[in-house]
Amino acid sequence: MNLQQIKFVCAVVESGFSVSEAAVACYTAQPVVSKHIKTLEDELGLKIFERRGKRFTGLTQAGEEAYAIAKRLNGDASSLKALASDMSNAKEGVLTIATTHTQARYVLPRVVTQFGAKYPGVKLKLKQGNPKQCADWVAGSEADLAIATEALSLDPLLVTLPCYRWNRCVIAPPKHPLAKEKVLSIEALSKYPLITYDTAFTGRSQVDRAFASAGFTPNVALTALDSDVIKTYVRLNVGVGILAEMAYEPKVDADLKRMDASHLFAPSITRVGLRRNAFLRRFAYDFIVMFAPSLKRTEIEEAVFAKA
Fold first, then answer.
1. Residue 146: half-sphere exposure toward Cβ, Cα within 13 Å
2. Residues whose CB is less than 8 angstroms from the CB of residue 257 and which lie 6 or more positions away in sequence, other chains included
3. pLDDT given for residue 258 in this prediction
4. Is the dihedral of CA 155, 157, 162, 164 positive or negative?
5. pLDDT, tens digit, for every residue of 209-235?
6. 195 contacts 226 by C-beta, under 8 angstroms
7. 10 Å Cβ neighbour count for 31?
8. Nearest Cα to 129, choosing from 141, 143, 111?
9. What is the DSSP code string of the chain?
10. What are 277-295's pLDDT values in tens digits?
11. What pLDDT does 170 receive?
12. Which residues 6+ apart lie within 8 Å of 285 measured at CB?
């Protein structure tokens, strides 16, 4: 057994069981991936993957357990590399951050600028996806940390720490009937088509829960993966937008009426997600503290290395 085999198992699962995509991600050829996985299965005496012909279609029951172990092993190998790099050159390297569009577009620019000034020798990489994807990338050591709302805490391989609370606003064209409401209500919102985030994104569950509690069903005309798309279709009069409050920019979005909705929906919490027991380079800790000044390095380390 070797780390290359472990890496290939993780890559195949994370590529949706596509051996060809896993090979591209690992900078090798498809037959090499298939051969290494077959050798590992033979050595262990168990089948990790379900197959249909030569195609992988999923994980076996034993494969589920094997994949969980493989992710931990792959992560530990990444930690060893990070430790060596930190000892040899603490101010150079690569920091990969998995995050959502809203965080990348509206919250992170300030932090990225601050971080770049302190660590000009560190290359930042942003991987954008939904919260579940962000969690998977960190758990699989494809990213060093994740910044997102919800879902991160569902992955048992991750530890998450709260960064800040936020809520939502409602946006509509200035002449929309809702713009005349002194105080918005769920009942008033239920009368109009709504444009909001996809169910995998940015606290959408809080919106659905608020409508259900009030006894109404939201008329969701369109769901989107990012805030800019929501604003685009509000401008086209497709519906009223329910938006993360930080995504409304007064100067840029002056053509849209912003209405406070913090009294309608429970606040959401943006969290940073880290792989349990993972070694983090010093500049990674600095990035987290720049993003969430309420967190301290000692607090982060205690959480990462706490016994489950």
1. 33
2. 171, 172, 173, 174, 176, 179
3. 95
4. negative
5. 899 999 999 999 999 988 999 999 999
6. no
7. 10
8. 143
9. --HHHHHHHHHHHHTTS-HHHHHHHTTS-HHHHHHHHHHHHHHHTS--EEEETTEEEEE-HHHHHHHHHHHHHHHHHHHHHHHHHHHH-TT-EEEEEEE-HHIIIIIHHHHHHHHHHH-TTEEEEEEE--HHHHHHHHHTTSSSEEEEESSGGG-TTEEEEEEEEE-EEEEE-TTSGGGG-SS--HHHHTTS-EEEE-TTSTTHHHHHHHHHHHT----EEEEESSHHHHHHHHHTTS-EEEEEGGG--TTTTTTSEEEE-TTTS--EEEEEEEETT----HHHHHHHHHH-TT--HHHHHHHHTS--
10. 888 888 999 999 999 999 9
11. 96
12. 297, 300, 301
The residue assigned the tokens 């920019």 is 249
Q: Please give the C-alpha separations between residue 297 and each of 116, 143, 162, in angstroms, as whole numbers.
A: 19, 19, 14
CB 149 within 8 A of CB 203: yes
Strand partners, 126: 97
Residue 175's Cβ-count burial label (10 Å; 0-12, 13-18, 19+) is exposed
| Under 8 Å between Cβ of 149 and 131 | yes
Strand partners for 241: 171, 195
Provide the 10 A C-beta neighbour count for residue 179: 16
Q: Which residues contact 32 (CB under 8 A, 6 or more apart)?
A: 23
- What is the distance between the alpha carbons of residues 218 and 236, in angstroms, rounded to a whole number? 20
pTM exceeds 0.85 for this model: no
Q: How far apart are CA 147 and CA 97, in angstroms?
A: 7
Number of residues that this document lists for the chain = 308
| Whole-number Å distance between alpha carbons of 152 and 25 | 23
